[in-house]
Amino acid sequence: MAGVTLVELIVAIAIVGVALAGLVAAYNRANLASADPLIQQQMLAVAETMMEEILLKPYDTAGVQVPTPANRAQYTEVRHYNGYQTTGIVDVDGVQIADLGRYDIAVSVTPAVLSGATGQALRIQVLVRSGTQDLQLTGWRTRP
After folding, report:
1. 10 Å Cβ neighbour count for 48?
2. 3-state secondary structure string, the chain?
3. What's the rounded Cα separation, in Å, for the pair 103 and 42?
4. Torsions phi, psi of 66, nearest 5?
5. 102 DSSP 8-state letter
6. Are 140 and 112 in contact (CB under 8 A)?
7. Are 143 and 119 in contact (CB under 8 A)?
8. How confident is the model at residue 69 (pLDDT cuts 50, 70, 90)?
9. Residue 26: partners with Cβ closer than 8 Å, 6 or more residues away
10. Residue 123, strand partner residues
């Protein structure tokens, strides 16, 4: 008589069911944590984009302090970004980017002294926030 009895079949089904329950619980836990790296990557991309935009601007406009324009598209020097912040990410014209509405950004530009550097320097800090997560990039700009 080859085969299995009803009792053996029920025991096998119970063992497989317990094993599957454990796998499903582990899968759900991994699935919940998988969103964090995506959020971190998006925060880093937002911060790097803002930092690149700032560093592409001149140190200052002919050495004269000029008032900060109201629209980011009109910023002509690095110092204009000091105090810039938004709730939700916007493009240079101030238009909200819908898919990045969960991120906030704040920029700080302060004078700094760099050891070994002979000229003036600015310290640029870009802070991106999403919920309770923060990511901060720091860059430096010296007068040419």
Report:
1. 15
2. CCCCCHHHHHHHHHHHHHHHHHHHHHHHHHHHHCHHHHHHHHHHHHHHHHHHHHHCCCCCECCECCCCCCCHHHCCCHHHHCCCEEECCECCCCCECHHHCCCEEEEEEEEECCCCCCCCEEEEEEEEEECCEEEEEEEEEECC
3. 9
4. -115, 150
5. T
6. yes
7. yes
8. confident
9. none
10. 110, 140
The amino acid at residue 79 is: R
Residue 52, classed as helix, strand or coil, is: helix
Query: Three-class SS of residue 130?
Result: strand
Beta-carbon contacts of 54 under 8 Å, excluding residues fewer than 6 positions away, are: 78, 81, 107, 109, 124, 126, 139, 141
pLDDT tens-digit profile of 71-102? Answer: 888 888 898 999 999 988 888 888 888 888 88
pTM for this one?
0.70
Cβ-Cβ contacts under 8 Å for 39 (sequence gap 6 or more): 130, 133
How far is the C-alpha of 40 from the C-alpha of 120, rounded, in Å?
33
> CA angle 143-128-77, nearest 5°?
25
- Pairwise CA distance, residues 137 & 123, whole Å: 10
Query: Count of residues for the chain?
Result: 144
